[in-house]
Write the structure tokens for this entry.
Amino acid sequence: MQEQVVRGDLHAPINSQERYPMSMSFVRLISRLLVVCLIGLPFQASAGMIGTDQAVSATQAQAARAIVLSQISRADVAGQLQSLGLTPQAAADRVAALTDVEVAKLAGQIDSLPAGANGSGLLVLILIGVLIWWLVK
């Protein structure tokens, strides 16, 4: 015969499986599963129409990112980056990490730069002009 544990007025069996019927164990299992699902899964999903301005801005951001990446892939720029201790792949990774606004600003700066871009030719021209003006004076 099975031993009985006395708790107050109630007699409960020692074996815990006899305490709860099969249906109560099943309910507990399902309840725990639902709690895990509610915690682990997202609560809602939403879908909707996007406006034309959002679609256009995404396209412009991709185009700006392509401009910056094409500049980084140039041989002279890659050489400059390597002399500064930055590999072209690391530079491309940094460009990928930029926000759309930052990439658009950088692409705009690249587009506005004059040909020859570093301005050393302009500096030499100004120095020659100043030298001629000083000699003529």
